[in-house]
């Protein structure tokens, strides 16, 4: 007698609605919850399917990416891409090994708080890495804050670098404004690795640049398995308008994370903020979404500065993920035509801070970039390339 198949999402980052299971076919769809319109994130766990081949049929929109689903046969410990050959007609099939106890499937390779904790434990203690809390989320979770590079300590006086001297430059990094965009988190890990590396670039960063990073802007969404994109009434990346981060009027931020960041950064930067990066992932398929690209702003001067940075990034890239500035998306083209002044994005807000050269958004594909597979290790390598380009750009711009 065959065991009964169980499908659930009761774990960090889980998201699925099971409509029915008919024999060896499961009819499922992503849970959109408070999403305005449609989006594509899902992750679920299967038990009781050992030795069987099961077809998973999506009943709504096609939510499977160009490399098929990501699959973990060890309860989320390790992941691989199943491949596009496993997919057809909004469905994929999987042959469960005879000893399969806990198999997980996801739109892409997931990244939640436990993954961040694993990364921080792996890189170990460093006098040049401080871990703190930006604020508490709506649901009472700690929203992590990292400061690394040219710092001596973390806390009230953490703004000062070695021997009490402030860093010459500061760089701001934000990740997971849209909580489902998980591959960007591995990119952030690569930047941290580069700043702490035992090489010439790492030494330069630790003498010169202080980084501030928020790994999970939408912390509740990451852990709850939300879409995040187009969350009603507006998502975290449309919460930077107005002069006041808090209050009762239209200028107030509605999320504690964005309000806290808007309060903290101007005081922290002390006019030394040079670059601000918002790390994202794009749509799940289509040629324009299978390349790494930067997103333009209405400011021609800022876009020219981003162009200079991209020239350096193309020149300095050493990792396996290709980058071509020709794939960048200028303001006014494609989907990049937003003029909603009432709901300002992070990159526009950060790009207006004193001393900054530019604020920008980077889109790193979920699965395939320029024909190369996107995996945690390749995304980290691109993060290291990104950091190397930061050094080159700052040196060329500021001497």
Write the layout of secondary structure elements.
Elements: E1 6-8, E2 17-22, E3 25-29, E4 43-47, E5 53-58, E6 70-72, E7 80-81, E8 87-88, E9 91-95, E10 103-106, H1 113-123, E11 129-136, E12 142-149, E13 169-175, H2 183-196, H3 200-208, E14 209-214, H4 219-224, H5 256-269, E15 273-280, E16 293-295, H6 300-316, H7 346-350, E17 358-363, E18 368-369, E19 372-373, H8 376-398
Parallel strand pairs: 3-5, 13-14, 13-15, 15-17
Antiparallel strand pairs: 1-4, 2-3, 4-10, 5-9, 6-7, 6-10, 8-9, 11-12, 12-14, 16-17, 18-19
**CATH superfamily (homologous) name of the largest domain:** Zn peptidases
Structural class: alpha+beta
In which order are the strands of the major sheet placed?
11-12-14-13-15-17-16
H-E string: EEEEEEEEEEHEEEHHEHHEEHHEEEH
| Count of β-strands | 19
Considering DSSP H and I runs of 4 or more, what fraction of the residues is helical?
10-25%
β-strand percent reads: 15-25%
Mean pLDDT: 93
- H/I helix tally: 8
Distance between the termini: 73 Å
CATH topology annotation of the largest domain: Aminopeptidase
The CATH class designation of the largest domain is Alpha Beta
The CATH architecture of the largest domain can be named as 3-Layer(aba) Sandwich
Whole-number tally of structural domains: 2
């Amino acid at each position: 007698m065959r065991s009964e198949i169980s499908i659930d999402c009761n774990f960090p980052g889980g998201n699925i609605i099971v409509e029915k299971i008919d024999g060896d076919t499961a009819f499922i769809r992503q849970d959109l919850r408070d999403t305005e319109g449609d989006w594509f994130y899902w992750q679920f766990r299967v038990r009781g399917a050992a030795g069987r081949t099961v077809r998973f049929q999506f009943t709504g929109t096609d939510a499977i990416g160009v490399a098929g689903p990501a699959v973990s046969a060890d309860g989320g410990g390790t992941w691989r891409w199943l491949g596009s050959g496993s997919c057809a007609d909004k469905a994929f099939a999987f042959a469960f090994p005879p000893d399969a106890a806990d198999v997980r499937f996801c739109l892409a390779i997931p990244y939640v708080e436990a993954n961040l904790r694993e990364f921080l434990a792996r890189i170990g203690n460093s006098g040049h890495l401080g871990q703190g809390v930006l604020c508490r989320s709506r649901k009472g979770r700690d929203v992590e804050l990292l400061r690394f590079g040219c710092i001596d300590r973390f806390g009230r006086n953490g703004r000062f670098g070695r021997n009490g001297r402030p860093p010459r430059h500061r760089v701001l990094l934000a990740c997971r404004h849209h909580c489902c965009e998980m591959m960007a988190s591995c990119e952030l890990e690569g930047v941290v690795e580069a700043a702490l590396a035992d090489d010439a670039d790492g030494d330069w960063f630790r003498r010169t640049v202080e980084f501030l990073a928020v790994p999970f802007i939408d912390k509740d969404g990451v852990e709850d398995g939300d879409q995040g994109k187009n969350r009603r009434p507006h998502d975290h990346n449309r919460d930077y308008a107005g002069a006041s981060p808090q209050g009762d009027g239209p200028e107030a931020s509605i999320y504690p994370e964005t309000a806290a960041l808007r309060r903290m950064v101007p005081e922290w930067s002390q006019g030394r903020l040079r670059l601000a990066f918002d790390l994202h992932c794009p749509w799940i398929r289509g040629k324009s979404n299978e390349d790494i690209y930067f997103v333009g702003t209405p400011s021609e001067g800022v876009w020219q500065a981003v162009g200079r940075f991209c020239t350096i990034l193309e020149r300095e890239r050493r990792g396996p993920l290709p980058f071509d500035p020709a794939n960048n998306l200028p303001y006014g083209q494609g989907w990049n035509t937003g003029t909603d002044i009432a709901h300002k994005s992070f990159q526009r807000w950060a790009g207006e801070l004193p001393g900054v050269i530019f604020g920008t958004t980077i889109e790193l594909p979920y699965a395939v970039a320029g024909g190369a597979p996107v995996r945690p290790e390749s995304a980290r390598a691109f993060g290291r390339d990104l950091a190397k380009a930061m050094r080159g750009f700052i040196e060329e711009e500021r001497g």
